[in-house]
Amino acid sequence: MLAVVERSGLDEAFHEGCVAVADPSGRLTAWFGDVDRHFFVRSAAKPFQAAVCLQSGVDLPPEHLAVACASHDGTPVHVEIVRRILSDGGLDESDLGCPPARPLSATADREWAGRGSTERRRVFHDCSGKHALMLRACVAAGWDPAGYLDPGHPLQIRQLEGMRAVGALVDDTVGIDGCGAPVFRVSGRTLAAAYARLSDPVFAPVWTAMHRYPALVSGSGNADTEIAVGLHAVAKRGAEGLLAVAVAGRGSLVVRCWDGSERAVAVAALSALDQLGWIGERTPLRQSLGRPVRGGGVPVGSVRPVFQLEHA
Q: Is there a contact between 56 and 140 (Cβ–Cβ < 8 Å)?
C-alpha cells in the first residue's frame, strides 16, 4: 500500500503501487512493491523523446524545449510557445496530430473562455508541445510530417531506439498514448534506470530546460513542479498515476500508483524522497508530505503515505 486517504477519522480509500530508486549508474538501490510490473510510460517519456528530436537537427531555446517536454496546463504562455515552435518551422496548428482538447488546468480553461475561446483546439492539448517538436524534427530531418505518429515513421523508429538505448524498455511492444503518439512499455525498475541517465551530458539541453523552467514543464502548484523547484532536479508526471524524478548527483525516483491516482503519487514521491534523505529539514516540500482532504472547504483529513522503502 502506497497511501491511505483518511476523512474524519476513517480510512476510506487505499492506493497500491510501487516505488523504484536508482543511483546515478542506474542500479536499483531502494524500492517498494512490484518494481518489475509492466506499464506504459505515457508522458514521462517526453524528456527522452525530446532528446531524439534534438538529435534530428532541431534547435530550440530552453523555454520552448521545456514546453516540448511538458504535460502543460494550457495557460496562454504554454499555448503561445507551442504556436511559436510550430511557426518557426513553417507549421501551424492544423499540422498537429494530437486530438482537440480544452486546457488541462481549470484556471487556464476559464481564462481562455473569458477571452472568448470556448472551443476545443489541438494546441490546448497538454501534449501539444511534444507534437510540435516532433513535427519540427521531421522538417529538420527531411521526413514527411504527414503520418509522423505512425510507429513505422522514421521519427518513431528513432524514438523507440532512443528509449531502448537508455534502458527504459521491458520489450519493444508499442501502444498508443492518449495523444495518439506511440507509447512504450516499461517497469519501475527500467524507468528509474532511464531517469538516472538524464544527468548524462547527452541530455544536457533537456535537463537544463526542464530544471530552469519547471512551471513550463507542468504548471504552477503541480507535484512535479514543486519537486523540481524544491530540489536540484527535473520531474515529470505521466498519466495513470506516474511520477518520475531525476536528482542531480543522487539518482532517480519513479512512483507508479496502480489505480492511476495522482493524489497518491504526489504524497508517495515526497515520502520516498524524505526517506532517502533528499528533502532538507527546512524545504517547503516537507509541508506537502501529507496532503489535506477537505470537507465543506476545510481540512478534515489527509492523504498519507504508509510504505517503507527497502534498501539494497
A: yes
